[in-house]
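User: Run a structure prediction on this.
Assistant: Running it now.
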Amino acid sequence: MPELVVTALLAPSRLTLKLLRAFMWSLVFSAALVAAAVYGCIALTHVMCRPRRGLGRRHTPPVCLSDPTLGEHCFLILRSSGLRLHYVSAGRGKGPLMLFLHGFPENWFSWRYQLREFQSRFHVVAVDLRGYGPSDAPKDVDCYTIDLLMADIQDVILGLGYSKCILVAHDWGALLAWNFSIYYPSLVERMVVVSAAPMSVYQDYSLHHIGQFFRSNYVFLFQLPWLPEKLLSMSDFQILKTTLTHRKRGIPQLTPSELEAFLYDFSQPGGLTGPLNYYRNIFRTFPLEPQELATPTLLLWGEKDPYFEQGLVEAISSRFVPGRLEAHILPGMGHWIPQTNPVEMHQYMWAFLQDLLD
C-alpha cells in the first residue's frame, strides 16, 4: 500500500491521540494548580505555627545510616548511563540476589529490617535509586524516564554478577519493579511488591474510580517545576515529617534518628529535585495499553493504605496469568508495611520463597 495512503488512513487516529493527550495535560495541570493551592495553605500554616524554622540543611548524617549490622556501603558504575549508584550490601555468597527498591520519600534505609532479616540466606542489596542520596542525580527531567530507570535496575543486577534476582519493592520502587518484570522477565525470578500497582492498572482503575485521584492528589502537585521543592522544604521539611510520622497514615514508631536518615539526603542542595522528577515523567506515556503479568509475585497491601484503594488489588489480579500471583490485604495496616509491620511481611516472604531455599 502506498505510503501516502497509509498516512492518510492513520491521520484520524493520530489526531485523536493528540487531542486526547492535550485534554489529559489540561486536566493534569488544572489539578496541579488546585493541589498547589491546597499544599501552599498547608505549608503556610506550618510556617505560621513554627515561625523560627527555616530551610534546614543537615551537615552531618545520622549515625544509624552507618550501622554495620545493615551491611557494607558500596558504589556501582552503571554500564548504560555511566552514573554511579550507591547501595548497601550484606550476605554475599550466602544465596540468591535479593534486590530492594525503595519509594518516596525514602531511601535504602527503608529496608533496614529486611536487610537484617534476610542476609543469612540471601545476598541482600538495597540501592539508592538515581537522584537519591549519594547516588548520582542528573538535573534534567528527561533523565528520569521509566526506560532509563529500568535500565538502571538491569545494570545493577548484571553489574553485581548475577543473571537474575528476587526483586522486593515498595511504592515508586514497586512501580518500577512491575515494569521491569514485564520488559526484563528473564532477570526476575520472583517478585515481592508492597503498596503499588502497575502503571497501566493504575491508569485504568483511576479513570473509573474518582476516589483514587483524590488519594493521589500529591502526584498532580509534583508536575509543577520548583514549587513542590519549595513547599516540601518549608518549616524544616514539615510536610515530609508529617507524611512519615503521622500517627495513623505514617510510621509512628519512627525514631528521631531514623527520621533524620530520610531528611538528611532531601535537605542537601537539589536533594528533592531528582525524586520529584520521577513524578514529572509519569504522564508522558499516557495512554498505556493493558499488559499481561506473569512473574511469580507476592503482593502485600495495607487495608488502611491512605494513598491506594483496595480495589487496585483485584484490578492487578485480573491482569495476571493464573497461579502466578499471591495477594494479601493485611488488616489494619497502612502504606509503609516494610517499616511498620516488618515481622508480618517477613513471614509472608519466607513462606513465598521457601522452595528456593530447599
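The chain has 13 helices and eight strands.
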